[in-house]
Amino acid sequence: MKNASWYVAYVGTGQEISACEICNRMISKDLLVECFLPKYETMRKINGEWQRLHQLLFPGYVFLISNSIIELLSKLAKLPIHIRVLGQNNDEDKIIALSEEERDWLLAFTDKVHCIRMSRGYILGDKIIVTHGPLVGREAIIKKIDRHKRRAIVEISMFGRTTTASIGLEIVAKHT
Q1: Contact 52, 118 (CB under 8 A)
Q2: Of 8, 113, 168, 176, which residue is least crowded by CB atoms under 10 Å?
Q3: Could you say which DSSP state residue 75 is in?
Q4: For residue 150, pLDDT beyond 50
Q5: Residue 91 in this model has a pLDDT that exceeds 50
Q6: Using alpha carbons only, what angle is made at residue 62 by residues 57 and 67, rounded to the nearest 5 degrees?
Q7: What is the mean pLDDT of residues 11-39?
């Protein structure tokens, strides 16, 4: 996996899991090291009880790790799913792998199964202090919090542009 590059492909919202399963099943590990879906852990109240759930970090997209994008495109075209690698056009392919910074961001925040676990913290005045989880020391990227849904909206650079993503954050206290 040393020389393998990370790519992102659009599959359409709701098709992510089946697309990933098909890719991992039908393309050899020599060509496709892994197809995965980055997720984040969150809490949701179901039947009056809080339960941990995993949500897609980037709905509509799958991540592909490959040593040869040209060969991979050929295999993807033969699959029984619609999958388009970002940068791929009809006449000309200008596919760009995720940058080192984008890949490193995902690796820093996610665990072995590509999931960003819940963070926990508190509010002191108008400042968010994260005490547990992947957001510890990274409070500056938090743009908004939704205490009721136990989520933080973070701003990141991904897919060659600045975008936002939801990450689980439980605020346990608010001090003035």
Answers
A1: yes
A2: 176
A3: H
A4: yes
A5: no
A6: 130
A7: 95
